[in-house]
Specification:
The protein contains six helices and seven strands, in the order αβββαβββαβααα. It is an alpha/beta fold.
């Protein structure tokens, strides 16, 4: 299974399990330095997926958002240095990755982890908790959702067929000996992310 197919499977799995009660946006741009004045030319980061509740918890609260960072393998996680900048840019932040690619202890407190299991479904390994989000950061995220978020909800018939096909291929491709994606204790101790937690 290619990197692009695995990323697509993770995206569809998020929509399948969380799309019924949330609006799902893909490739949402946020400015590297949020400001209240829209600046189309400002340097940006791209959030892989953002989910937003369809209903407010109460009339005066804003819609809660969750940013999802999709990682296709361990190397994808270890080489990415941008994701710490996403903390505080949505109400919560969660990683989605194949089983064993990321150890929960490598993530800061409050950052969630959902794993794609060998059977092709997603399982919560570490729950995320609400983050402090400034008004400026919320405005910037809403601006990003409005101008270029590709929105969708639950999977349509054609998308469900694609999701089922990718899940089957993923299951068939997981053979014994695929330990290259699993975090070993030595790798965990050597991980820059894990070392940051001990500082």
């Amino acid at each position: 299974m290619s990197h692009a197919e695995l990323v697509e499977l993770l995206y569809l799995a998020i929509r399948f399990q969380w799309g019924a009660r949330n609006r799902v946006y893909r490739e949402v741009s946020i400015r590297q330095t949020p400001t209240m004045i829209p600046q189309a030319w400002a340097p940006v980061y791209y959030l892989d997926v953002v989910t937003m509740e369809c209903q407010r918890r109460s009339g005066c609260e804003p819609f809660r958002t969750k940013a999802w960072e999709i990682k296709s393998c361990r190397a994808d996680f270890l080489t990415d240095t941008k994701w710490p900048n996403y903390i505080g840019r949505a109400d919560s932040l969660c990683f989605a990755a194949p089983q064993g690619s990321i150890h929960p202890k490598e993530l800061p407190s409050g950052i969630g982890l959902v794993e794609l299991m060998p059977q092709g479904y997603m399982q919560v390994v570490k729950y995320c908790s609400p983050q402090e989000m400034s008004d400026v950061a919320r405005y910037d995220l809403m601006y990003g959702l409005a101008i270029n978020g590709h929105t969708s909800g639950y999977l349509g018939d054609n998308e469900y067929e694609e999701y089922s096909d990718l899940r089957s291929r993923y299951r068939d491709g997981l053979l014994p000996g695929r330990a290259d994606v699993v975090v070993t204790p030595d790798e965990l101790a050597a991980s820059p992310a894990w070392r940051r937690q001990g500082e």
